[in-house]
Amino acid sequence: MFTYPKKKRKKRSLSEKAFLNKLIDYHLHPHFKGPNAERAILLDYFAHSIIESTPEESRRKFIRYSLPKLIEALDRGQEDKKYKELLRLAYLYSIFKSLSKK
Fold first, then answer.
1. How many CA atoms lie within 13 A of 10 on its CB side?
2. pLDDT above 70: residue 78
3. What is the DSSP letter of 35?
4. 33: Cβ–Cβ under 8 A, 6 or more apart, which residues?
5. Where are the alpha helices (DSSP H) in the chain?
6. Taking each helix axis from N to C terminus, what angle separates 67-76 and 81-101, rounded to the nearest 10 degrees?
7. With contact defined as beta carbons under 8 Å apart, do 45 and 66 qualify?
């Protein structure tokens, strides 16, 4: 049976911002399941927020992607229950606030 040859994809070079974000992800994301996951998640957020141009975008991405991971990491640890509950409430409030803007 005859098949057409597949087209070769052109490799696109990454922008400097995308390259730095991938570099941060490569080095920090493996530590999200370790004993110091809270620190790695917060460091990831701060590193990405330095690269991002707008603080609002950084905050929105943190709430959407990193805050649930942070709460999960704190649940695994021996942190204070009031602190974990406060984080959960802050997360729910941020979701509610972002949904009400749409």
1. 3
2. no
3. T
4. none
5. 16-28, 37-51, 55-61, 67-76, 81-101
6. 160
7. yes
Nearest alpha carbon to residue 47 among 87, 20, 19: 20
What pLDDT does residue 99 have? 67
Tell me the two tokens of residue 88.
């959960």
Q: For 24, what's the count of Cα atoms within 13 Å in the CB-facing half-sphere? A: 19
Q: CB under 8 Å to 20, separation ≥6 — which residues?
A: 51
For range 87-102, the mean pLDDT? 70
Burial class of residue 92 (count of CB atoms within 10 Å of its CB; 0-12, 13-18, 19+): exposed
Question: At a CB cut-off of 8 Å and minimum separation 6, what does 90 contact?
Answer: 67
- Angstrom CA distances, 86 to 3, 28, 66, 89, stand at 59, 25, 16, 5
